[in-house]
């Protein structure tokens, strides 16, 4: 199969769909890989690295899209990229369609088959291709939140861990999944006063066992969130419903009760955000002030650390890429129900129920 890897064009996105080691695995299995020139430059891999692994180099993205049967990317295709897709092609990347009707309609119009990393499932119900980026985003959320809290950046002017004689900052994490757990690890490690909220008592027990007395756990209710938000210096939104839009757990009214210079970091922004006041931002302009509170809502947070993120992501995606290339997408999906859950668009139709429901578009499930 001919596999194409275009250069990412989203603002300040330096990740790449395949590293040279992955290219070599595919080439050794008999496949052809076409990489756009400069695609790996942001993580320290030049065209020569890809050529040494067996890839061919394309000068333009148009050449990649025109000739590849399988397109492997990182971020959702921008509208200009959607126009280059065609019926019979397979796109394998993050899509996050529930919060992006324009992209969904463009993919449907292309006739291409689009498989989303974020809805591929493992036998245990976990999300193996979302997990590595959730880990990165969770750890980053505390790092960027601490930076935003500095007075020079508009923040309240508090140090997360405090110092002897001065109390630490209060960090509230909404969601005890992968992102929330990694955010808690970072915040606890910096000696902040950390509280995590989740609607699963079972998960709260697991977190309490994992962190002990260094972490406060609270069952998620509107009242609990309302009270905790008031006193928080940093709130991390780490809520996920696979494929669907994120619930708005923090209302504008709640934001108004927060102290001036407090910080909201919305990891859920790819799925529409879990704060009512959130709107997507970029690494070029990552924050905005609303109701006196700093909002960090970058839709591709892991892109800020592209080398770490690319290696973490491709470690997880490569087996699936190889399955799609070795067997073709139909046979690969038939053999792996978890990969089949990743199918979001096929032949002009939405095929994922949660995505279709979020967008108010009829779902046409694909039968493998």
General description of the model:
There is one protein chain. This protein has 368 residues and is α/β, with parallel strands linked by helices. The protein has 14 helices and 15 strands. It has helices at residues 20-28, 47-52, 61-67, 79-82, 101-110, 131-148, 178-189, 201-211, 222-231, 252-256, 306-327, 329-335, 337-340, 353-359; strands spanning 2-5, 32-36, 56-58, 70-72, 90-93, 113-116, 170-174, 193-198, 215-219, 234-237, 263-266, 287-290, 293-296, 343-346, 349-350. Strands 3-2-1-4-5-6-14-15 form an 8-stranded mixed beta sheet, with helices on both faces. A 7-stranded mixed beta sheet has the order 9-8-7-10-11-13-12, sandwiched between helices. α6 packs across α7 and α11 (306-327) crosses α12. The two termini are 20 Å apart. The model has no long low-confidence stretch (mean pLDDT 96).
Figure out the total of helices.
14
Shape: globular
Number of E strands: 15
Identify the strand order in the major beta sheet: 3-2-1-4-5-6-14-15
Radius of gyration: 21 Å
Structural class per helix/strand content? alpha/beta
* Overall mean pLDDT: 96
Main sheet overview: 8 strands, mixed
First-last Cα distance: 20 Å
The percent of residues in helical segments reads 25-40%
């Amino acid at each position: 199969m001919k596999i194409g890897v275009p250069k990412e064009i989203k603002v300040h996105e330096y990740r790449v769909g395949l590293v040279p080691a992955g290219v070599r695995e595919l080439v050794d299995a008999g496949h052809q890989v076409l990489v756009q020139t400069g695609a790996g430059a942001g993580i320290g891999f030049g065209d020569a690295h890809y050529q040494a692994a067996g890839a061919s180099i394309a000068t333009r993205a148009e050449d990649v899209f025109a000739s590849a049967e399988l397109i492997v990317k990182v971020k959702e295709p921008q509208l200009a990229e959607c126009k280059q897709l065609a019926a019979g092609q397979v796109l394998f990347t993050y899509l996050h369609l529930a919060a992006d009707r324009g992209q969904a309609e463009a993919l449907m119009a292309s006739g291409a088959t689009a498989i989303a990393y974020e809805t591929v499932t493992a036998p245990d119900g976990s999300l193996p291709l979302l997990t590595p980026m959730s880990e990165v985003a969770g750890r980053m959320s505390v790092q960027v939140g601490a930076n935003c809290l500095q007075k020079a950046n508009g923040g309240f002017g508090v140090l997360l861990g405090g110092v002897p004689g001065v109390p630490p900052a209060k960090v509230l994490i909404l969601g005890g999944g992968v992102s929330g757990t990694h955010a808690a690890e970072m915040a606890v490690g910096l000696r902040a006063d950390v509280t995590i909220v989740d609607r699963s008592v079972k998960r709260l027990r697991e977190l309490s066992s994992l962190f002990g007395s260094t972490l406060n756990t609270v069952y998620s209710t509107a009242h609990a969130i309302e009270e905790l938000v008031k006193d928080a210096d940093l709130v991390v939104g780490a809520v996920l419903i696979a494929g669907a839009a994120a619930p708005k757990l923090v209302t504008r009214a709640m934001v108004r009760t927060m102290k001036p210079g407090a910080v909201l970091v919305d990891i859920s922004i790819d799925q529409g955000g879990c704060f009512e006041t959130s709107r997507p931002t970029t690494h070029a302009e990552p924050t905005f002030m609303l109701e006196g509170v700093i909002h960090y809502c970058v839709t591709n947070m892991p892109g800020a650390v592209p080398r770490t993120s690319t290696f973490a992501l491709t470690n997880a995606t490569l087996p699936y890429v190889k399955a799609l290339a070795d067997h073709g997408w139909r046979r690969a999906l038939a053999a792996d129900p978890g990969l089949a859950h990743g199918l979001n668009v096929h032949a002009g139709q939405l095929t994922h129920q949660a995505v279709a429901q979020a967008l108010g578009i009829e779902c046409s499930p694909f039968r493998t």
